[in-house]
């Protein structure tokens, strides 16, 4: 009986496809986080009545793990109050909060698939 030899080559077998997918995922994560940061800053620009610039300067994107980026306000003590989830929001006071993080979260949730799709499409040629 004669032996059978199989030779596999191409992007799937030499690692190019895996590298391209990893690059696409990284780019998508960063693009989504950048979009989120831009949106929350845009929301703040729209709703803040007397901005000092301090709170906006604390909005940053941090990479918290290999596959996670987080947009936040660096723990500014009055951040929850501005959002409307603090213990001093209505009914304790008449200020209900701006809800800028909630609106941003909803918008990012809606747009993230399209942002990711764009990043993946840019890396498809590397897979072939």
What is the structure about, briefly put?
The chain has five helices and two strands; from the N terminus they run H-H-H-E-E-H-H.
Task: Outline the secondary-structure elements.
Layout: H1 11-14, H2 16-47, H3 54-57, E1 60-65, E2 68-72, H4 79-83, H5 100-123
Antiparallel strand pairs: 1-2
Structural features, described:
It is built from 5 helices and 2 strands, in the order αααββαα. By secondary structure, it is mainly alpha-helical. The protein has one domain (13-127). A two-stranded antiparallel ribbon has the order 1-2. Helix 2 packs antiparallel against helix 5 (100-123). The longest helix has 32 residues, at 16-47. It is rod-shaped, with a radius of gyration of 22 Å.
Q: How can the largest sheet be summarized?
A: 2 strands, antiparallel
Distance between the termini: 36 Å
Global geometry: rod-shaped
Q: Total strand count, please?
A: 2
Organism: Streptomyces tremellae
Protein name: HK97 gp10 family phage protein
């Amino acid at each position: 009986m004669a032996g059978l030899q199989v030779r596999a080559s191409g992007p799937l077998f030499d690692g190019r496809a895996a590298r391209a997918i990893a690059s696409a995922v990284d780019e998508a994560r960063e693009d989504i986080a950048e979009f989120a940061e831009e949106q929350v800053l845009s929301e703040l620009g729209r709703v803040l009545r007397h901005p000092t610039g301090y709170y906006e300067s604390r909005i940053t994107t941090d990479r918290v793990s290999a596959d996670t980026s987080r947009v936040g306000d660096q723990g500014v003590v009055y951040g929850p109050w501005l959002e409307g989830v603090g213990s001093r929001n209505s009914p304790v006071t008449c200020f209900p909060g701006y809800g800028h993080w909630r609106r941003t979260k909803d918008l990012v949730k809606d747009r993230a698939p399209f942002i990711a799709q764009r990043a993946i499409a840019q890396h498809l040629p590397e897979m072939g």
